[in-house]
Amino acid sequence: MSIKEDHNRFRDIIKGRIKEDLRKYVSQGEMIGKREKDFVKIPLPQIDIPNFRYGPKQQGGVGQGEGKPGDAMGEPQPGQGQAGDQPGDHLLEVELSIDELAEILGEKLALPRIQPKGMKQIETTKNRYSGLAPVGPQGLRHFRSSYKKALQRSISSKTYNPKNPIIVPIKEDFRYRTVKTVKKPMTKAVVIYMMDVSGSMGDEQKEIVRMESFWINAWLKKHYKGLETRFIIHDAAAKEVDEDTFFKTSESGGTLISSAYKLAQQMIEKDYPVHEWNIYPFHFSDGDNWSGEDTRLCIRLLREFFNPNCNVFCYGQVESKYGSGQFLKDLQKEFGSDEQIILSQIENKDKILDSIRDFLGKGK
Questions:
Q1: Residue 26 pLDDT more than 80?
Q2: Least CB-packed of 189, 204, 316, 358 within 10 Å?
Q3: What is the pLDDT, as a whole number, of residue 37?
Q4: Claim to verify: residue 174 and residue 229 sit in the same structural domain
């Protein structure tokens, strides 16, 4: 079995472990903090790190023979603490791409593929280097793989000389990168995140929103190239902010949800023509609104603007001991059977996975 096959098998094992315990990983905020561009580092304590196993002493071998008087054995070092009788934890930090995480999420939740609107009938083509082949153009010759083949041939034929390690590849050794042309629809998408940052939305509630938005983004990026994200915070007034400010801002004023919906509408009308863009607004709140009149205004905006112009509108209500939760009840009464307005109640971190299924399970 080749190194590449071993590596692929190992990654399949890793993905299987993550899929089994996905609810745990979804609720771990520290994992999201280990992002590096399009990759995430995930600690996996369940997998043992490979280690050397030594045979019985009487077998001899390197480091196992009888010593002579006066032989140095290394300087002894003082130990600290008491001896234990339990094995230590093996922490293996594995790096996976956002796309691989999205694939695991989709398989775990059985999420359907999204059916984009807009310019899906127009296709773009992209060349992807997907493997190696023994024939190909000189410009695609892969030096490292060709050298490996030549080295293997030299060693197996016993012509390799360690004292004069010159390797001369022949035609049969050459390997070339293979190109696969992939067709992708020209679709554009934007996610507009809105969050209530009034005093009743504490750090725990905002952490839930942060983790859920990470996985939502991962799934949407799998379906849309160059996904755009915008962030709106609101209490009694709304404003656009960057991602870092979105998750760290705390206010103490009242809550006027319509201020966020109005700003999102302005944003869409100005920057995202609805016949070209796939639009995904997400609003998170603990369900307190200033008045029934403002709630009626929100319902009107949802019915008259967001419903006909967006792929879906998603409202997630994060449970707070200070919030009444009334806004979700009002929306359930108005849009309970409407598949364009998706409602989800997020009681705690363990419910994030269920909420993601609520939002993305329609495939829109």
A1: no
A2: 204
A3: 60
A4: no
Which region among 24-33, 61-70, 176-185 has the lowest average model confidence (pLDDT)? 61-70
Packing angle between helix 203-223 and helix 352-360, nearest 10 degrees?
Answer: 40
Rounded distance between C-alpha atoms, residue 355 and residue 208, angstroms: 11
The answer to whether residue 4 is domain-embedded is: yes
The pairing of strands 176-185 and 228-234 is unpaired
User: In terms of residues, how long is the chain?
Assistant: 364
Q: Which residue, 313, 236, 230, is CA-closest to 272? A: 230
Task: Please report the sign of the dihedral spanned by the C-alpha atoms of residue 291, residue 345, residue 202, residue 240.
Answer: negative
In a domain, 22, yes or no: yes
Measure the CA–CA gap between 102 and 25, rounded to whole angstroms: 13
Residue 22: give the domain boundaries: 1-49+90-110
Cβ–Cβ under 8 Å, residues 307 and 334: no
- Among residues 137, 155, 183, the one where a domain terminates is 183
Do 94 and 219 have their domain in common?
no
pLDDT tens-place string over residues 217-236? 889 988 887 789 999 999 99
pLDDT for 121 = 43
User: Do 158 and 299 share a domain, yes or no?
Assistant: no
> Are 278 and 220 spatial neighbours (Cβ–Cβ below 8 Å)?
no
Q: Which residues pair with 357 in a beta bridge?
A: none
Q: Residue 364 and residue 344: Cα distance in Å, rounded?
A: 16
| Domain identity same for 231 and 308 | yes
Q: For 328-333, which contacts have Cβ atoms below 8 Å and span 24 or more sequence positions?
A: 328/287, 329/287, 330/295, 330/299, 331/299, 331/302
Please state the domain count of the chain: 3
- Indicate whether 59 belongs to any domain: no
